[in-house]
């Protein structure tokens, strides 16, 4: 019993809970359906024991499934890597260039960001992916990208098998006339008879699996190209957004400065090797990064601090005039508010009349901001932020006079 407990650790059981989420359930369900139907249909179309081509086809199909699942579970369970709790730079003077995370009680290392879902600061965070129910970052960026590559390739192979199976099985069952189309879905008219009868249920299941395979090829394939685009520039999705906001900040204030992304090595091959290695272990330790010539070690974090200060300046103070329960699509806030709810996993915040909010960005009927907390409530609580309906709040008179707009709604200059 003691040996069993030492093998099955509490942390491992916690990690298995990642599977109990709609993202992994759907992703693994699609993989299971496409793989199972492809193996069944490959037996009908190209019996693997009769010819060398059939054997190669079946082995390749199993190989796709194994590699897809291996990279999927690696990305999920290995995880992105987290900044150690209580981390601080070796040189204490460098802390002025870094943001401090109140939740992790540590400084945010360069290229790291705090994930609300994981509740930790993630090293080289790209995004939190619901399909693996984990973040994509420093340690699992390569395996996640390989999954995005292998899934469409496997689905293309499976889709080819589905099409050829339906064609060969229904070829002798279709008779086309000028006015009628007759379909015979009885046993196949060939000798020998198929091991698995291709009836109406098999046809419907194959057609459904074909739709899943084609949809996965398009959707996941687009994600792969997006990931490769930023990897070849040695960026993450968040860093691409930071760079865009840097250009926006400089243009907004008409500053005489240029932001240069410090981690682009100037060569696509060098950038590629920062993520993909023969050993499978990414370069570095996830805390210190090589930079291009002419850049400061903390160029990116300094820009983040400037954007954070600019965000506070351009934020607008609102007062809550009506209670809001924090529901995703509130029916009592109007039809337009209901149907324009932000399509994001970012949280909604519960509001009570009389509270104050600092809004930093917004849509036509929704705003995103931080709740202003009293000092008594603030102790032990980092931030309460999220989306809320516009018609629940009104702009404070002092901010109305300045006529500032939340980020993303700048007035034309």
TrEMBL record:
Record protein name field: Palmitoyltransferase
Subcellular location: Membrane
One Pfam family of this chain: DHHC
Family: Belongs to the DHHC palmitoyltransferase family.
EC category: transferase
EC number(s) reported in the record: 2.3.1.225
UniProt membrane topology term: Multi-pass membrane protein
Domain of life assignment: Eukaryota
Domain SH3: 313-398
Listed transmembrane segments: 25-47, 59-83, 146-167, 195-226
UniProt GO cellular component terms: endoplasmic reticulum; membrane
GO MF, one example: protein-cysteine S-stearoyltransferase activity
Gene: ZDHHC6
PROSITE patterns in UniProt: DHHC (PS50216), SH3 (PS50002)
Record's catalysed reaction(s): L-cysteinyl-[protein] + hexadecanoyl-CoA = S-hexadecanoyl-L-cysteinyl-[protein] + CoA
BP-aspect Gene Ontology terms: intracellular signal transduction
Organismal lineage: Eukaryota, Metazoa, Chordata, Craniata, Vertebrata
Keywords: Acyltransferase, Membrane, SH3 domain, Transferase, Transmembrane, Transmembrane helix
């Amino acid at each position: 019993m003691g040996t069993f407990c030492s093998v099955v650790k509490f942390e491992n059981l916690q990690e298995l809970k990642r599977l109990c989420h709609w993202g992994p359930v759907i992703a693994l369900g699609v993989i299971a359906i496409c793989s199972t139907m492809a193996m069944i249909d490959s037996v009908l179309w190209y019996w693997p024991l009769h010819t060398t081509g059939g054997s190669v086809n079946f082995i390749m199909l199993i190989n796709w499934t194994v590699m897809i699942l291996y990279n999927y579970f690696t990305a999920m369970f290995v995880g992105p890597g987290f900044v150690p709790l209580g981390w601080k730079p070796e040189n204490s003077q460098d802390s002025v260039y870094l943001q401090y995370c109140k939740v992790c009680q540590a400084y945010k290392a360069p290229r790291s960001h705090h994930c609300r879902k994981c509740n930790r600061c993630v090293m080289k965070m790209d995004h939190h992916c619901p399909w693996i129910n984990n973040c994509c970052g420093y340690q699992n960026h390569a395996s996640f990208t390989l999954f995005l590559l292998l899934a469409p390739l496997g689905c293309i192979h499976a889709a080819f098998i589905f099409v050829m199976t339906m064609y060969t099985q229904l070829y002798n069952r279709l008779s086309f006339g000028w006015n009628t189309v007759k379909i015979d879905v009885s046993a196949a008219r060939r000798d020998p008879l198929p091991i698995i009868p291709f009836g109406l249920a098999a046809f419907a299941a194959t057609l459904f699996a074909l739709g899943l395979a084609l949809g996965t090829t398009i959707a996941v394939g687009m994600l792969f190209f997006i990931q490769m685009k930023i990897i070849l520039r040695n960026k993450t999705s968040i860093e691409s957004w930071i760079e865009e906001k840097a250009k926006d900040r400089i243009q907004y204030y008409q500053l005489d400065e240029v932001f240069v992304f410090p981690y682009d090595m100037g060569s696509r091959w060098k950038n590629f090797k920062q993520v993909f290695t023969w050993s499978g272990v990414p370069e570095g330790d996830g805390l210190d990064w090589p930079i291009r010539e002419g850049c400061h070690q903390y160029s990116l974090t300094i820009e983040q601090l400037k954007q954070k200060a600019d965000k506070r300046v351009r934020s607008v103070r609102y007062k809550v005039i009506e209670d809001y329960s924090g529901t995703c699509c509130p029916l009592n806030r109007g039809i337009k508010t209901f149907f324009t709810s932000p399509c994001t996993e970012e949280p909604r915040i519960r509001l009570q009349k009389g509270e104050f909010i600092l809004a930093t960005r917004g849509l036509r009927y929704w705003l995103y901001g931080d709740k202003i907390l009293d000092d008594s409530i603030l102790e032990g609580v980092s931030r309460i932020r999220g989306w809320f309906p516009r018609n629940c709040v009104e702009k404070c008179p002092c901010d109305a006079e300045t006529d500032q707009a939340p980020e993303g709604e700048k007035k034309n200059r």
